[in-house]
Structures are given as structure tokens and as C-alpha cells.
Design a protein that fits this description.
The chain has 105 residues and is α+β, with helices and mostly antiparallel strands. The protein has one domain. It has 3 helices and 4 strands; from the N terminus they run βααβββα. Helix 2 crosses helix 3. The radius of gyration is 18 Å and the shape is elongated. The two termini are 35 Å apart. 8% of the residues are buried. The model has no long low-confidence stretch (mean pLDDT 89).
């Protein structure tokens, strides 16, 4: 049942993963090509500088002050060494960065 006079403000935002990952899969790279392609994808991702973008997104969220926020492409980027070695290392956690940035505001 919809209540008269009830307003709900919402915001949706695509955080964008920060790189074109298609070259990693189509066509499948050879073992020799994979490191170079992976490095390029990571370079693209790094260049989009999510912590800086998160500040701009947090500013918009605070200005709009939505009741509900929908987020797309909320990624966790990790670096994984060759199989059988140390565990993966989280490089960037989009949700954590955005939430911390919002708390600071």
C-alpha cells in the first residue's frame, strides 16, 4: 500500500571498475601475452584513481541526501601471485573506500 504524502529519495551510481578487461578474455591471450595485457588493465584501473573519484561521489551523495543508494560495479581488486605462493592482497575495495569517505564527510 502506498501512503499519500510519502516521498522516497533514491540515487543509483555505477562506480565503474576502472579498466577495459575484455582483452583478458576475448580472444584468450597466450601465456606470453597475459602478463603484458594484465599490466595494461591494471595501469588503466590505477589511472582512474578510485579514492579521488570516491570523494566526488561522496560529495554528490551528501548533496542529494538519498534515502536509498544503489551501487553497481562495486569491485574488490586483488593482486594474486602465482599459484602455490602467498595469498592474494586486496589492492582496492570500492565499497570500503566509499563508506570511509562518506564517514569523513
Amino acid at each position: 500500500m502506498i501512503q499519500k504524502g510519502f516521498n522516497l529519495n533514491f540515487l543509483t551510481w555505477n562506480l565503474y571498475l576502472g579498466a577495459n578487461i575484455v582483452p583478458l578474455f576475448f580472444p584468450p591471450p597466450t601465456k606470453e601475452e597475459l602478463p603484458k595485457i594484465t599490466e595494461e588493465v591494471y595501469r588503466q584501473f590505477s589511472a582512474t584513481n578510485f579514492p579521488v573519484r570516491a570523494r566526488a561521489i561522496a560529495k554528490q551523495i551528501k548533496e542529494i541526501n538519498p534515502d536509498i543508494i544503489g551501487l553497481q560495479e562495486v569491485a574488490i581488486w586483488t593482486l594474486s601471485p602465482p599459484q602455490g605462493t602467498k595469498a592474494s592482497k586486496v589492492v582496492t575495495d570500492f565499497l570500503n573506500i566509499l563508506l570511509c569517505t562518506l564517514k569523513k564527510r
